[in-house]
Design goal:
By secondary structure, the protein is an alpha+beta fold. The strands form three sheets. Strands 1, 2, 3, 4, 5 and 6 form a six-stranded antiparallel β-sheet that branches. Strands 7-8-9 form a three-stranded antiparallel β-sheet. A hairpin with a 5-residue loop joins strand 11 and strand 12. Helix 10 packs across helix 11, helix 16 packs across helix 22 and helix 18 packs antiparallel against helix 21. The protein starts with 7 loop residues before the first helix and ends with a helix.
Length: about 725
Amino acid sequence: MKPRLPTPGEYREAISQPQLCFRDAELKSSLPDLDALQMPRPVVGNFAAVFRVTTPSKKRYAIKCFTRSVEHQARRYAAVSSVLQSEKPPWAVRFEYIETGILVAGVWLPILKMEWIDAIGLLQYVEQNLGDQQAIASVAKSFAQVVLDMQQRGIAHGDLQHGNILVTKDASIRLVDYDGMFVPELAAVGPSGERGHRNYQSPKRGVQQFDATLDRFSAWVIYGSLAVIAAAPSMWLLNRHSGSESLMFAEGDFEDPTHSPLVAQLRGSSEATLSAAGDLIKRIAQLSPTQLPAFDPEQIGLDLETIKRLPNLDASARRNIPDWMRTQAPLSGAAGSQYTEGDGWIQTHLPPLPAAAFQDGALIRIWNAVCLAGVLALSALFRFGTLPGRSAAVGVAGLLALGGSVTWAVFRRHPLVVAKRGLASKARALRADKTKTEQRIASIQAEVSKRQAAFAERRSTLERESGAAERRIREQLQQQTTGLETRLKQLRDQAANLAGALRTEIAQATAAADQAAVDRELQAHWIAGANIHGLGNELKSRLAASGIRTAGDFRSVSIRAAGRAHRTPISDLVLPNGRRIHVYGLGPQKLQALSQWRGALEAAVRHKVVLGLPQHQRMAIEQAHAAKQRPIGEEITRIETQRVSLERAARSASVDQKAQIGTQIVAAQQECELAVRQLESSRDALVPLLQQSSSQLVRLTRDLDTYSAVTAGRFLRFVVMGK
């Protein structure tokens, strides 16, 4: 039996005193990372708890403390360490296996002292760089190089998943956790029991598989996920839930790829990378581990050079663009982009146009002539006394009104004013069109969000229905089999009791047969001719008179304490039938001598005579018991057959309902995608119109700015003052 290893909490208490628990000199002086309670902070996994410590020289190590036993653990790590240290692959992390590494509760236990890598997990890296397709594609390429390197060396990690893949600042890949690693030197040792993360392993992988092909399935899954995310980041947003323990695909996609909504979505995509990834995942999920093809990134066809040409948004820009543009459209100016910013931005950077101004000298001459004629007319009327004083004032006012009307009429019809009025009218119309187009785009996007939310709700409803149906199937099966299980237990108890009774009866019959054979042999040994200490002829005659003539006429002697009426113990002979007799003159000592004589004869007889139950008697007993067991066995078989039939029917019902729900989800998704594509097509058709309106409005605004001096006041000043 394997010894119990400490819990993470017990390791935590030990590491709180590093100078006492570690044997390694460097670790003795180290300090562990602490949590809010000022205790060492562990990262707990399936097989171990990992603590980070820092030495006085600022070196950091990860200390792996084992919580589960692995067969041949020291030998495994020695073989892995030997290979990695000799070959020094760029993806490996240096480590040291210390057999007596940590003292917990008075027992020295092994630890792994590992180089601390300044990196982040693959899942965190993808989340931080989701808008940077080039970064995701670069990491996919780095991962592919690591897998190809291991493939060439004949090495397999055994548990490739996001938690065991670290990404450094230069986007290189480092692998950690070598518990299940295969190297050629471990082929004879056998598997470690590591089956890997369920969201990255084939459901068909068994615990006995242990060779250089261990990573084929997980390598395809990880590279395919990264390729999909690099080619279409929106797939991450649409298909992955917060907190998911996977990059893209999950266990359910591998168990039933035919009805997987994600696989169906990828396979139906017009994007080559997505459809290739979907086809590949469906194919490998249906293969046994021995049939999986070697890893080859070219089969998915992630075009790294094309993705490199796509410009990336900085963080602030990604936050400020609409969601639909973030997931659908590259930046303006990108090769092949259907969205362009237009030339409005050019207009805002051009030098201003020359300002328009009133420069027509004829206006001044006409204005001066009108004013001179009016003054001369008024002077003549005053000179000849035609106008009284009050009428003169009215005449002047009329003259001024007439001049103002003429001036306003001339201003309104001036070419600069007409041009400015026309530009302003066009600008108002363009603003109205632009606002209307923006409202239509917003309405379409709201409808897109509504359709997507409706699909998400529909999918959630169907998944709940599937879960409820699965529970009903399990409950129904439990109700159907509970009575059967109770009856099976009763029958098995009866069968066990009968088997015990058979053994008891055979043992009793065997003992009786053995004793009968011994008794027959003992009856050939006469007491009268035997030399028994203390037994003379008189006592032998008394024995014969009591029917005790041979060693076979009695079984044993009985000596028991006397009652108050007798001073000496009571001594009896025990006959084969169990009856006791007392022979006068046979005291305890003489009976003991007689018993010893018989015992010696019996031992010799048992050694000489072949004992055992005759075959015909055994067969008779067994046949009698078999007749009792037969109806019980037949009923057990019938009930087990009925139970298996019920379980098979339940599994079939479960598979059917899952397939039905999966079909409905795929149909709902396809319906949603079709509606969204149509809406987005309408939206995309409006985008150029919006951009055109924006560009024209910018140009019109720039043109209008040149007419800022074309006003009634400036016109009046011009005609009056000439400037």
